[in-house]
Please model this.
Amino acid sequence: MIGVIAGYFARRRKAWRLLRPQKAATRSRQMTVVEVIRETADAVSLRMVPSDGLPLAYEAGQFLTLAVEIEGVTHRRSYSFSSSPREQGEATVTVKRVEGGLVSNWLNDHAASGLELTVTGPWGHFTIDADDDCSHYVMLAGGSGITPVMSLAADLAARERRPKVDLLYGNRSVSDIIFQDRLAKLQEVYPELTVRHVLEEAPDGWERPGRLNGDRACELIGDLQGKRFYVCGPEPMMDSVGEALRHAGVDEAAIRMERFVAPEAAGADGGPHEAELACTGE
Model:
């Protein structure tokens, strides 16, 4: 028990260290929204280009902090890239509506082409090195946690050496699946990618009904050896998956997690599990 508790707090300390700003990436930039893509009833993607015309350098899986002015007050929120950095000249972040969330609701309801945003970043360590030689990745996402995973998968698909990727994606219902069409199209050009959807409120005959948790993940993955795991989603899902993987003998170094951390500012948008939160790799 002492070892489990010590490991828990060690992971928390690591997450806190990674949350601290990276000094090389603190310069503010102006970005212009050129397209708003309605992904689901509660999620939009903002395709942006740098207003100064200079490229924005970032890695797949990272995130930006957006400064959004609402009624004369500037609010800062962090959102993950859903695009691949190989899409030169532009970048896309995806925003899921948070119940009671000021910024996520405003962006979902009012963001339009031509919107100017001040951004800082990129931030985050939920990335895959260009020279990484892993041949088999397993990515587990829940809800808006698919956003950085989408970025990673799209980037891997464009690499010269394309590893095998198993993606398990949990949602409440079919209508909640973000990037459903994009994931299907990516599989067509990236045959090494397998996407499996797990739905809590699944229609009759759905192949994988239920909740995506640690036990279900291990059941669907099968052999865990020799694979690297990337996990992003609601806190309970991530804790369950992480515990199950470690219990099954997966080395801690083979597990990467992206946690959404609530903003500290008073009156900041709430909800511990959605995309209107700062992200930190673990």
